[in-house]
Amino acid sequence: MTELHQPISAESFSPDWVSPPGDTILDFLEERDWTQQQLADRLGYSLKHVNQLIKAKVPLTEDAAIRLQNVLGASVGFWLTREAQYRERVALLAAAERQVAMVPWLERFPIKDMMDAGVLVKRRLDAKSKPQLVGELLTFYGVASPAQWETQYGCMALSFRRSREDQADVAAISAWLRMGEKMAEKLDGPAYDEAKFKATLTEIRGLTSLKPSEFQPRMQQLLHEAGVAFVLVPALPRTHVSGVARWINPHRPLIQLSLYGKQNDRFWFSFFHEAAHILLHSRQKKAVFLDDPSKSESSSKEEQEANAWARDFLIAPKQALGLASLHKTKAAVIEFAKCAGVHPGIVVGRMQHDGLLEVTWLNDLKVSFVLKAKV
What we know:
3 domains, alpha/beta, 434 Repressor (Amino-terminal Domain)
């Protein structure tokens, strides 16, 4: 028997939280051999209200918790905690049932690739795990349901400015974009400053001859101070995107690059290509420029403009005039790069692109490096 003068604490009493607080009330009534009418008389409630309270048809309010404390001896905190945990459990069970119906939505996404990237918890994909996976995917995107995903990300395709026609897997692309968003959300910096960004790009150009361990921290710092979020995100299959430029809010542009198979000439061209979108197309703040700068034949006006800007920023047009007559030797390329103030690999990449050098020549002047996805 539970003594009336011995309150039950939430810590000492651990019922099954799936059951409503009314089950605990019934336990007290059984111990005291009381009827619901007797309890109602002591609480000052009608019999109907007590019955509804026991059956969880009405919530256990602060007023009810105080009355129950006075009559049954358990604390107000115990009753309110009991009610809150019950309601939480009911809500979670209801959500789980809804998520069962949402399972077909998972088929749109590269789930295994997202698991490999650490976006989702690795697990066997079976009927038992899929509803929970739906919840994780909703949390990842920060939406309440697939309908909200559709309005926030599914319709994002309308804002895509593609450089390739096969950039059509909206779900895969949205996953990669969201990975960048979540990384950018952790960056707390000043608002975008265009003048500072332009000066920053000039300084970053001077970093192209350095190793990643040397240029990456400085590059991150400079862009942060200019109000530009810069993130490196591992590539996801089916996206066909090596970089993106977009505005995550009216005052915060984002440059996002993948980490897939980067040689320094391609990395630097990709970066300055995305920077060009920020500078040249800042009025299109709702646009999402999906880029693969290695595909230079894009019919998009914006892509062509970004390609031209990056090309001329890395090697100025007047300097580039000398490339046609440049001796195709390492020594000549190295000397030209030194005068231009860029890495020799960038010069090789430009010459190959312009048809001035076979694509198999002088590739040992390029550098393959691994960048850390660190913000």
